[in-house]
Amino acid sequence: MDNAAFHRSQRTKEFIESVDCQLIFLPSYSPDLNPIKKFWAHMKRWVTNQINQL
């Protein structure tokens, strides 16, 4: 889970643990775990390559 305030609440923790699951929080910022960052990096490379081929 990310670090949103409601994810850190005791109520959320109790709810998740009540169904035998474990909370695992992401690091504060991790671009490797953020698929949109990978997508935009790929898109920027593609656009740059297209421009350079002109």
From TrEMBL:
Signal peptide: none annotated. Gene3D superfamilies: Ribonuclease H-like superfamily/Ribonuclease H. InterPro entries: RNaseH_sf, Tc1-like_DDE_dom. GO terms for molecular function: nucleic acid binding. It comes from the Bacteria. Pfam families: DDE_3. Residues 1-49 form the Tc1-like transposase DDE domain. This is Tc1-like transposase DDE domain-containing protein.
